Amino acid sequence: LAIDRNTVLDIIAEEALVERSALTPEATLDSLGIASLDIISIVFALEERFGLTLEQSDFEDVQSLGQFVDLILDRAAIEQL
Amino acid sequence: VTRRVAITGMGCISGLGQGLSATWSGLVDGLGGIRRLSRSFREEGRLVIDGPAAVVAGVDGSAVEAHAARRVMAQLDPAAAYALVATHEALVDAGLLDQPKLLAEASILYGGASGGNVTLEEGYARLFANGQTSVHPLTIPKMMPSATVGQISMLYGVRGAAFAIASACASSAHALGEAMHRIRAGRSKIVIAGGADASITFGSWTAWKALRAMAPDACRPFSRDRQGMVLGEGAATLVLEDLDHALARGAPIHAELIGAGASSDAFDLTQPDGVGAVRAMEEAYADAGIARDTPCLISAHGTGTPLNDKVEAQALRQFFGPHIERNIVIATKSAHGHALGAGGAVELVTGVQALANGLAPPILGYLGPDPDCGLPLALGEPQRLHAETLVSNSFAFGGLNSVLIARRAR
Protein backbone atom coordinates (compact mmCIF):
# COMPACT_ATOMS: atom_id res chain seq x y z
CA LEU A 1 0.00 0.00 0.00
CA ALA A 2 1.53 3.29 -1.08
CA ILE A 3 1.87 6.02 1.50
CA ASP A 4 1.49 9.63 0.39
CA ARG A 5 1.34 13.04 1.99
CA ASN A 6 -2.41 13.47 1.58
CA THR A 7 -3.26 10.18 3.25
CA VAL A 8 -0.90 10.99 6.11
CA LEU A 9 -2.63 14.34 6.58
CA ASP A 10 -6.05 12.64 6.51
CA ILE A 11 -4.94 10.27 9.24
CA ILE A 12 -3.49 13.08 11.35
CA ALA A 13 -6.78 15.00 11.11
CA GLU A 14 -8.80 11.94 12.00
CA GLU A 15 -6.70 10.75 14.91
CA ALA A 16 -5.95 14.11 16.51
CA LEU A 17 -9.51 15.39 15.90
CA VAL A 18 -8.34 18.55 14.13
CA GLU A 19 -9.78 20.16 10.99
CA ARG A 20 -8.05 18.96 7.84
CA SER A 21 -7.90 22.56 6.56
CA ALA A 22 -5.85 23.64 9.59
CA LEU A 23 -3.05 21.25 8.64
CA THR A 24 -0.59 23.57 6.93
CA PRO A 25 3.13 22.71 6.83
CA GLU A 26 4.11 25.77 8.93
CA ALA A 27 1.63 25.02 11.72
CA THR A 28 3.26 23.76 14.89
CA LEU A 29 1.95 20.65 16.59
CA ASP A 30 1.46 22.80 19.71
CA SER A 31 -0.70 25.33 17.91
CA LEU A 32 -2.81 22.51 16.48
CA GLY A 33 -3.22 21.03 19.96
CA ILE A 34 -1.54 17.80 18.87
CA ALA A 35 -0.11 16.38 22.09
CA SER A 36 2.09 13.38 22.75
CA LEU A 37 -0.86 11.01 23.12
CA ASP A 38 -2.19 12.19 19.75
CA ILE A 39 1.19 11.45 18.16
CA ILE A 40 1.05 7.94 19.62
CA SER A 41 -2.44 7.47 18.15
CA ILE A 42 -1.36 8.86 14.76
CA VAL A 43 1.68 6.59 14.61
CA PHE A 44 -0.47 3.61 15.60
CA ALA A 45 -3.00 4.40 12.86
CA LEU A 46 -0.21 4.73 10.25
CA GLU A 47 1.24 1.40 11.31
CA GLU A 48 -2.20 -0.21 11.04
CA ARG A 49 -2.97 1.30 7.64
CA PHE A 50 0.39 0.71 5.96
CA GLY A 51 1.74 -2.28 7.85
CA LEU A 52 4.69 -0.28 9.11
CA THR A 53 6.66 -0.41 12.30
CA LEU A 54 7.66 3.10 13.34
CA GLU A 55 9.71 4.20 16.34
CA GLN A 56 7.78 6.58 18.59
CA SER A 57 11.07 8.07 19.75
CA ASP A 58 11.80 9.34 16.22
CA PHE A 59 8.98 11.81 16.58
CA GLU A 60 9.76 13.23 20.01
CA ASP A 61 11.51 16.41 18.91
CA VAL A 62 9.25 17.34 16.04
CA GLN A 63 7.91 20.91 16.15
CA SER A 64 6.11 21.74 12.91
CA LEU A 65 3.54 19.71 11.05
CA GLY A 66 5.66 19.82 7.88
CA GLN A 67 8.60 18.26 9.76
CA PHE A 68 6.31 15.65 11.23
CA VAL A 69 4.89 14.58 7.87
CA ASP A 70 8.34 14.61 6.21
CA LEU A 71 9.70 12.41 8.94
CA ILE A 72 6.79 9.98 8.62
CA LEU A 73 7.28 9.72 4.84
CA ASP A 74 11.03 9.35 5.28
CA ARG A 75 10.75 6.56 7.85
CA ALA A 76 8.02 4.84 5.85
CA ALA A 77 10.19 4.88 2.73
CA ILE A 78 13.08 3.27 4.63
CA GLU A 79 10.72 0.72 6.12
CA GLN A 80 9.22 -0.12 2.74
CA LEU A 81 12.53 -0.52 0.90
CA VAL B 1 -21.76 24.64 62.07
CA THR B 2 -24.11 22.22 60.37
CA ARG B 3 -23.73 22.78 56.69
CA ARG B 4 -26.70 21.93 54.51
CA VAL B 5 -26.25 20.50 51.04
CA ALA B 6 -28.20 21.72 48.03
CA ILE B 7 -28.62 20.14 44.62
CA THR B 8 -28.00 23.07 42.28
CA GLY B 9 -27.47 21.30 38.97
CA MET B 10 -28.67 18.11 37.30
CA GLY B 11 -27.95 16.40 33.98
CA CYS B 12 -28.81 13.00 32.57
CA ILE B 13 -28.56 10.76 29.53
CA SER B 14 -30.29 7.38 29.42
CA GLY B 15 -32.12 4.97 27.17
CA LEU B 16 -34.98 7.48 27.31
CA GLY B 17 -32.89 10.17 25.65
CA GLN B 18 -30.33 12.90 26.19
CA GLY B 19 -31.11 15.60 28.72
CA LEU B 20 -32.92 15.27 32.03
CA SER B 21 -36.16 16.49 30.45
CA ALA B 22 -36.05 13.63 27.92
CA THR B 23 -35.58 11.05 30.66
CA TRP B 24 -38.25 12.65 32.84
CA SER B 25 -40.85 12.92 30.08
CA GLY B 26 -40.03 9.34 29.06
CA LEU B 27 -40.85 8.23 32.59
CA VAL B 28 -44.08 10.17 32.77
CA ASP B 29 -45.43 9.22 29.34
CA GLY B 30 -45.12 5.57 30.34
CA LEU B 31 -43.70 4.40 27.01
CA GLY B 32 -40.34 3.39 28.44
CA GLY B 33 -36.98 3.10 26.72
CA ILE B 34 -36.65 -0.68 26.66
CA ARG B 35 -36.61 -2.20 23.17
CA ARG B 36 -35.53 -5.49 21.72
CA LEU B 37 -31.87 -5.28 20.77
CA SER B 38 -30.49 -7.66 18.17
CA ARG B 39 -26.82 -7.58 17.22
CA SER B 40 -24.42 -10.14 15.88
CA PHE B 41 -20.65 -9.94 16.30
CA ARG B 42 -19.24 -9.51 12.77
CA GLU B 43 -22.35 -11.13 11.33
CA GLU B 44 -20.93 -14.52 12.26
CA GLY B 45 -23.86 -15.39 14.50
CA ARG B 46 -21.51 -16.98 17.00
CA LEU B 47 -21.85 -14.14 19.50
CA VAL B 48 -25.17 -12.36 19.67
CA ILE B 49 -27.02 -9.82 21.72
CA ASP B 50 -30.70 -10.63 21.48
CA GLY B 51 -33.10 -9.40 24.08
CA PRO B 52 -34.52 -6.29 25.75
CA ALA B 53 -32.21 -3.39 26.56
CA ALA B 54 -32.43 0.35 27.09
CA VAL B 55 -29.76 1.71 24.77
CA VAL B 56 -28.60 5.32 24.46
CA ALA B 57 -29.63 6.08 20.89
CA GLY B 58 -27.00 8.74 20.25
CA VAL B 59 -24.88 11.36 21.95
CA ASP B 60 -24.93 15.00 20.92
CA GLY B 61 -21.58 16.30 22.11
CA SER B 62 -21.76 19.63 20.30
CA ALA B 63 -22.21 21.72 23.47
CA VAL B 64 -19.30 19.94 25.15
CA GLU B 65 -17.07 20.50 22.11
CA ALA B 66 -18.13 24.13 21.78
CA HIS B 67 -17.09 24.65 25.40
CA ALA B 68 -13.79 22.82 24.84
CA ALA B 69 -13.23 24.67 21.54
CA ARG B 70 -11.95 21.42 20.10
CA ARG B 71 -13.20 17.97 19.14
CA VAL B 72 -13.11 15.52 22.01
CA MET B 73 -16.07 13.17 21.77
CA ALA B 74 -14.67 10.81 19.12
CA GLN B 75 -11.72 9.90 21.36
CA LEU B 76 -13.87 8.81 24.32
CA ASP B 77 -15.25 5.52 25.49
CA PRO B 78 -19.07 5.81 25.51
CA ALA B 79 -19.09 5.84 29.34
CA ALA B 80 -16.95 8.98 29.37
CA ALA B 81 -18.99 10.53 26.55
CA TYR B 82 -22.16 10.02 28.58
CA ALA B 83 -20.45 11.43 31.68
CA LEU B 84 -19.41 14.58 29.82
CA VAL B 85 -22.81 15.40 28.31
CA ALA B 86 -24.57 14.79 31.64
CA THR B 87 -21.98 16.90 33.48
CA HIS B 88 -22.17 19.70 30.92
CA GLU B 89 -25.93 19.84 31.36
CA ALA B 90 -25.59 19.89 35.16
CA LEU B 91 -22.98 22.68 35.08
CA VAL B 92 -25.11 24.81 32.74
CA ASP B 93 -28.09 24.19 35.02
CA ALA B 94 -26.09 25.24 38.08
CA GLY B 95 -24.82 28.38 36.35
CA LEU B 96 -21.22 27.28 36.73
CA LEU B 97 -20.02 26.99 33.16
CA ASP B 98 -18.70 30.56 33.13
CA GLN B 99 -17.35 30.42 36.70
CA PRO B 100 -13.79 29.10 36.28
CA LYS B 101 -12.79 30.08 39.82
CA LEU B 102 -15.63 28.11 41.41
CA LEU B 103 -14.98 25.16 39.11
CA ALA B 104 -11.27 25.21 39.94
CA GLU B 105 -12.08 24.86 43.65
CA ALA B 106 -14.68 22.11 43.12
CA SER B 107 -14.27 18.36 43.61
CA ILE B 108 -15.47 15.37 41.60
CA LEU B 109 -16.75 12.06 42.98
CA TYR B 110 -17.99 9.88 40.16
CA GLY B 111 -19.13 6.27 40.10
CA GLY B 112 -18.96 3.49 37.57
CA ALA B 113 -19.39 -0.25 37.84
CA SER B 114 -16.74 -1.34 35.38
CA GLY B 115 -15.10 1.45 33.40
CA GLY B 116 -14.74 1.50 29.62
CA ASN B 117 -16.21 -1.84 28.60
CA VAL B 118 -16.52 -0.93 24.92
CA THR B 119 -12.83 0.02 24.75
CA LEU B 120 -11.78 -3.10 26.62
CA GLU B 121 -13.72 -5.36 24.28
CA GLU B 122 -12.44 -3.62 21.16
CA GLY B 123 -8.93 -4.38 22.41
CA TYR B 124 -9.76 -7.99 23.21
CA ALA B 125 -11.42 -8.50 19.82
CA ARG B 126 -8.16 -7.51 18.14
CA LEU B 127 -6.09 -9.80 20.32
CA PHE B 128 -8.29 -12.85 20.59
CA ALA B 129 -10.54 -12.72 17.51
CA ASN B 130 -8.38 -11.00 14.88
CA GLY B 131 -5.08 -12.55 15.85
CA GLN B 132 -3.45 -9.11 16.10
CA THR B 133 -0.77 -8.50 18.68
CA SER B 134 -1.31 -4.82 19.41
CA VAL B 135 -4.16 -2.67 20.69
CA HIS B 136 -4.95 1.01 20.32
CA PRO B 137 -2.49 3.10 22.36
CA LEU B 138 -5.31 4.85 24.22
CA THR B 139 -6.81 1.58 25.47
CA ILE B 140 -5.64 2.04 29.07
CA PRO B 141 -6.56 5.72 29.53
CA LYS B 142 -9.97 5.10 27.90
CA MET B 143 -10.91 1.98 29.86
CA MET B 144 -9.82 2.89 33.38
CA PRO B 145 -12.82 3.36 35.68
CA SER B 146 -11.63 6.86 36.56
CA ALA B 147 -11.47 8.00 32.91
CA THR B 148 -14.78 9.82 33.45
CA VAL B 149 -13.30 11.77 36.36
CA GLY B 150 -10.16 12.76 34.44
CA GLN B 151 -12.19 13.93 31.45
CA ILE B 152 -14.54 16.05 33.57
CA SER B 153 -11.62 17.56 35.44
CA MET B 154 -9.68 18.46 32.27
CA LEU B 155 -12.61 19.79 30.33
CA TYR B 156 -14.04 22.01 33.06
CA GLY B 157 -10.86 22.94 34.92
CA VAL B 158 -11.84 21.24 38.18
CA ARG B 159 -8.75 21.13 40.41
CA GLY B 160 -9.98 19.85 43.77
CA ALA B 161 -10.02 16.27 45.02
CA ALA B 162 -11.31 13.99 42.25
CA PHE B 163 -11.70 10.24 42.18
CA ALA B 164 -13.95 7.38 41.15
CA ILE B 165 -16.01 5.19 43.44
CA ALA B 166 -16.80 1.61 42.51
CA SER B 167 -19.51 -0.41 44.27
CA ALA B 168 -21.18 -2.07 41.27
CA CYS B 169 -24.80 -0.95 40.97
CA ALA B 170 -24.53 1.43 43.94
CA SER B 171 -21.40 3.24 42.66
CA SER B 172 -22.95 6.61 41.90
CA ALA B 173 -25.19 6.48 44.98
CA HIS B 174 -22.13 5.97 47.20
CA ALA B 175 -20.37 8.78 45.31
CA LEU B 176 -23.29 11.13 46.00
CA GLY B 177 -23.40 10.19 49.69
CA GLU B 178 -19.69 10.80 50.11
CA ALA B 179 -19.95 14.05 48.16
CA MET B 180 -22.62 15.23 50.62
CA HIS B 181 -20.38 14.35 53.57
CA ARG B 182 -17.49 16.22 51.95
CA ILE B 183 -19.52 19.41 51.78
CA ARG B 184 -20.85 18.98 55.31
CA ALA B 185 -17.28 18.57 56.55
CA GLY B 186 -16.38 21.88 54.95
CA ARG B 187 -13.85 20.36 52.58
CA SER B 188 -15.60 21.50 49.39
CA LYS B 189 -18.20 24.11 48.57
CA ILE B 190 -19.11 22.36 45.34
CA VAL B 191 -18.84 18.70 44.39
CA ILE B 192 -19.67 17.34 40.93
CA ALA B 193 -21.03 13.87 41.63
CA GLY B 194 -22.78 11.11 39.77
CA GLY B 195 -21.94 8.12 37.65
CA ALA B 196 -21.75 6.64 34.17
CA ASP B 197 -21.75 3.20 32.61
CA ALA B 198 -21.85 1.82 29.07
CA SER B 199 -21.86 -1.95 29.36
CA ILE B 200 -24.10 -3.19 26.58
CA THR B 201 -21.36 -5.13 24.81
CA PHE B 202 -21.08 -8.72 23.61
CA GLY B 203 -18.89 -9.77 26.51
CA SER B 204 -20.89 -8.01 29.17
CA TRP B 205 -24.19 -9.25 27.73
CA THR B 206 -22.89 -12.82 27.68
CA ALA B 207 -21.69 -12.50 31.26
CA TRP B 208 -25.04 -11.14 32.51
CA LYS B 209 -26.77 -13.95 30.66
CA ALA B 210 -24.49 -16.47 32.37
CA LEU B 211 -25.70 -15.11 35.72
CA ARG B 212 -29.27 -15.87 34.58
CA ALA B 213 -30.26 -12.45 35.84
CA MET B 214 -31.73 -11.05 32.61
CA ALA B 215 -35.41 -10.94 31.72
CA PRO B 216 -36.47 -12.30 28.32
CA ASP B 217 -38.89 -9.45 27.57
CA ALA B 218 -39.29 -6.64 30.10
CA CYS B 219 -38.27 -5.35 33.51
CA ARG B 220 -41.28 -5.80 35.83
CA PRO B 221 -40.31 -4.61 39.32
CA PHE B 222 -42.39 -6.06 42.18
CA SER B 223 -44.77 -7.72 39.69
CA ARG B 224 -45.88 -11.31 39.72
CA ASP B 225 -44.05 -13.41 37.10
CA ARG B 226 -41.15 -10.98 36.92
CA GLN B 227 -38.16 -12.69 35.35
CA GLY B 228 -35.19 -10.46 35.82
CA MET B 229 -33.40 -7.25 35.01
CA VAL B 230 -32.95 -5.40 31.73
CA LEU B 231 -29.60 -3.76 30.97
CA GLY B 232 -29.51 -0.02 30.48
CA GLU B 233 -26.74 2.53 30.16
CA GLY B 234 -26.14 6.23 30.56
CA ALA B 235 -25.01 8.80 33.08
CA ALA B 236 -26.33 11.34 35.52
CA THR B 237 -24.45 14.17 37.17
CA LEU B 238 -25.51 16.35 40.09
CA VAL B 239 -23.92 19.52 41.34
CA LEU B 240 -23.95 19.36 45.14
CA GLU B 241 -23.27 22.62 46.88
CA ASP B 242 -23.08 24.13 50.34
CA LEU B 243 -26.58 25.62 50.70
CA ASP B 244 -25.38 28.99 52.00
CA HIS B 245 -22.88 29.22 49.15
CA ALA B 246 -25.61 28.37 46.65
CA LEU B 247 -28.01 30.95 48.11
CA ALA B 248 -25.32 33.63 48.17
CA ARG B 249 -24.63 33.25 44.46
CA GLY B 250 -28.29 32.90 43.54
CA ALA B 251 -28.00 29.32 42.24
CA PRO B 252 -31.15 27.30 41.55
CA ILE B 253 -31.99 24.99 44.47
CA HIS B 254 -33.65 21.86 43.07
CA ALA B 255 -33.65 19.99 46.37
CA GLU B 256 -31.59 19.39 49.46
CA LEU B 257 -29.66 16.18 50.02
CA ILE B 258 -30.37 15.65 53.71
CA GLY B 259 -29.17 12.15 54.49
CA ALA B 260 -27.10 9.19 53.38
CA GLY B 261 -26.74 5.72 54.79
CA ALA B 262 -24.43 2.93 53.71
CA SER B 263 -23.92 -0.62 54.86
CA SER B 264 -22.75 -4.03 53.69
CA ASP B 265 -24.54 -7.35 54.02
CA ALA B 266 -21.43 -9.50 54.61
CA PHE B 267 -23.60 -12.31 53.30
CA ASP B 268 -23.44 -13.27 49.62
CA LEU B 269 -21.91 -11.99 46.39
CA THR B 270 -25.19 -11.74 44.48
CA GLN B 271 -28.07 -12.47 46.89
CA PRO B 272 -29.22 -9.63 49.13
CA ASP B 273 -30.09 -10.51 52.74
CA GLY B 274 -32.31 -7.49 53.49
CA VAL B 275 -30.73 -6.88 56.89
CA GLY B 276 -28.06 -4.68 55.38
CA ALA B 277 -30.68 -2.76 53.40
CA VAL B 278 -32.61 -2.00 56.59
CA ARG B 279 -29.43 -0.86 58.35
CA ALA B 280 -28.62 1.48 55.45
CA MET B 281 -32.12 2.99 55.67
CA GLU B 282 -31.77 3.35 59.45
CA GLU B 283 -28.48 5.16 59.05
CA ALA B 284 -29.86 7.43 56.34
CA TYR B 285 -32.88 8.39 58.44
CA ALA B 286 -30.73 9.05 61.52
CA ASP B 287 -28.40 11.13 59.35
CA ALA B 288 -31.30 13.14 57.92
CA GLY B 289 -32.89 13.53 61.35
CA ILE B 290 -36.38 12.71 60.10
CA ALA B 291 -39.02 10.35 61.48
CA ARG B 292 -40.14 7.18 59.71
CA ASP B 293 -43.71 8.41 59.50
CA THR B 294 -42.66 11.31 57.25
CA PRO B 295 -44.53 10.71 53.98
CA CYS B 296 -42.03 9.94 51.25
CA LEU B 297 -41.52 8.90 47.69
CA ILE B 298 -39.45 5.72 47.68
CA SER B 299 -37.35 5.15 44.56
CA ALA B 300 -36.70 1.45 44.98
CA HIS B 301 -33.63 -0.36 43.71
CA GLY B 302 -36.29 -2.54 42.03
CA THR B 303 -34.29 -4.50 39.48
CA GLY B 304 -37.10 -6.89 38.55
CA THR B 305 -35.26 -10.06 39.56
CA PRO B 306 -37.44 -12.48 41.57
CA LEU B 307 -35.26 -12.47 44.69
CA ASN B 308 -34.04 -8.86 44.76
CA ASP B 309 -37.52 -7.36 44.68
CA LYS B 310 -38.86 -9.79 47.27
CA VAL B 311 -36.03 -9.01 49.69
CA GLU B 312 -36.29 -5.26 49.09
CA ALA B 313 -40.07 -5.34 49.64
CA GLN B 314 -39.56 -7.18 52.94
CA ALA B 315 -36.87 -4.70 54.00
CA LEU B 316 -39.12 -1.73 53.18
CA ARG B 317 -42.04 -3.22 55.13
CA GLN B 318 -39.79 -4.00 58.06
CA PHE B 319 -38.24 -0.55 58.13
CA PHE B 320 -41.40 1.52 57.64
CA GLY B 321 -43.86 -0.80 59.42
CA PRO B 322 -47.44 0.47 59.02
CA HIS B 323 -46.16 3.86 57.75
CA ILE B 324 -45.30 2.23 54.41
CA GLU B 325 -48.90 2.74 53.33
CA ARG B 326 -48.60 6.54 53.32
CA ASN B 327 -45.70 6.35 50.88
CA ILE B 328 -45.46 5.74 47.14
CA VAL B 329 -42.91 3.30 45.68
CA ILE B 330 -41.52 3.89 42.18
CA ALA B 331 -39.09 1.67 40.25
CA THR B 332 -37.83 3.52 37.20
CA LYS B 333 -35.51 0.75 36.00
CA SER B 334 -38.68 -0.55 34.35
CA ALA B 335 -38.35 2.39 31.93
CA HIS B 336 -34.61 3.20 31.64
CA GLY B 337 -33.25 -0.24 32.41
CA HIS B 338 -30.49 -0.99 34.88
CA ALA B 339 -27.85 1.63 34.25
CA LEU B 340 -25.50 -0.24 36.65
CA GLY B 341 -23.01 2.18 38.20
CA ALA B 342 -24.99 5.16 36.85
CA GLY B 343 -28.27 3.85 38.30
CA GLY B 344 -28.15 5.58 41.69
CA ALA B 345 -27.51 8.99 40.14
CA VAL B 346 -30.10 8.53 37.37
CA GLU B 347 -32.65 7.56 40.02
CA LEU B 348 -31.74 10.52 42.24
CA VAL B 349 -32.22 13.09 39.45
CA THR B 350 -35.49 11.49 38.35
CA GLY B 351 -36.66 11.27 41.98
CA VAL B 352 -35.89 14.96 42.49
CA GLN B 353 -37.85 15.73 39.31
CA ALA B 354 -40.75 13.70 40.72
CA LEU B 355 -40.72 15.77 43.94
CA ALA B 356 -40.47 19.03 42.01
CA ASN B 357 -43.32 18.11 39.66
CA GLY B 358 -45.47 16.46 42.33
CA LEU B 359 -45.79 13.37 40.13
CA ALA B 360 -44.82 9.73 40.72
CA PRO B 361 -43.95 8.06 37.39
CA PRO B 362 -45.54 4.63 36.95
CA ILE B 363 -43.82 1.25 37.22
CA LEU B 364 -43.96 -0.32 33.76
CA GLY B 365 -44.45 -3.95 32.81
CA TYR B 366 -46.59 -4.73 35.83
CA LEU B 367 -48.64 -7.91 35.41
CA GLY B 368 -50.34 -8.04 38.81
CA PRO B 369 -49.57 -8.31 42.50
CA ASP B 370 -47.04 -10.67 44.00
CA PRO B 371 -47.97 -11.49 47.62
CA ASP B 372 -44.27 -11.29 48.50
CA CYS B 373 -44.10 -7.70 47.27
CA GLY B 374 -47.03 -5.98 48.94
CA LEU B 375 -46.09 -2.33 48.56
CA PRO B 376 -47.93 0.90 47.68
CA LEU B 377 -46.65 0.89 44.09
CA ALA B 378 -47.08 3.67 41.55
CA LEU B 379 -49.04 1.96 38.77
CA GLY B 380 -51.01 3.09 35.74
CA GLU B 381 -51.16 6.84 35.23
CA PRO B 382 -48.56 9.07 36.95
CA GLN B 383 -49.83 9.63 40.48
CA ARG B 384 -50.20 12.97 42.25
CA LEU B 385 -47.47 13.20 44.82
CA HIS B 386 -47.70 15.26 48.00
CA ALA B 387 -44.58 13.97 49.72
CA GLU B 388 -41.66 16.34 50.03
CA THR B 389 -39.10 13.66 50.83
CA LEU B 390 -37.36 11.21 48.51
CA VAL B 391 -35.71 7.98 49.65
CA SER B 392 -33.55 6.44 46.91
CA ASN B 393 -32.25 2.91 47.38
CA SER B 394 -29.28 1.29 45.65
CA PHE B 395 -28.35 -2.24 46.66
CA ALA B 396 -25.38 -3.68 44.78
CA PHE B 397 -23.75 -7.04 44.19
CA GLY B 398 -21.41 -7.87 47.00
CA GLY B 399 -24.11 -6.71 49.40
CA LEU B 400 -23.04 -3.06 49.16
CA ASN B 401 -25.94 -0.79 50.09
CA SER B 402 -26.51 2.93 49.75
CA VAL B 403 -29.60 4.96 50.67
CA LEU B 404 -29.94 8.65 49.87
CA ILE B 405 -32.60 11.03 51.23
CA ALA B 406 -33.49 14.29 49.51
CA ARG B 407 -36.05 16.93 50.38
CA ARG B 408 -37.93 19.23 48.04
CA ALA B 409 -36.53 22.74 48.02
CA ARG B 410 -38.54 25.11 50.22
What can you see in these coordinates?
The complex is a heterodimer of chains A (81) and B (410). Chain A has four helices and no strands. Chain A has 81 residues and is mainly α. Helix content of chain B is 35%, strand content 22%. In chain B, the strands form three sheets. In chain B, strands 1, 2, 5, 6, 7, 9, 10, 11, 12, 15 and 16 form an eleven-stranded mixed sheet that branches. The radius of gyration of chain B is 20 Å and the shape is globular. Chain A binds chain B through residues 17-18, 33, 37, 40-41, 44, 47, and chain B through 70-72, 74-75, 134, 136-138, 141.
Gist of the model:
The complex is a heterodimer of chains A (81) and B (410). Chain A is mainly alpha-helical.
Q: How would you describe this structure in keywords?
A:
heterodimer, A: 81 residues, mainly alpha, 4 helices, B: 410 residues, alpha/beta, 11-stranded mixed β-sheet, 3-stranded mixed β-sheet, 14 helices, 16 strands, 35% helix, globular
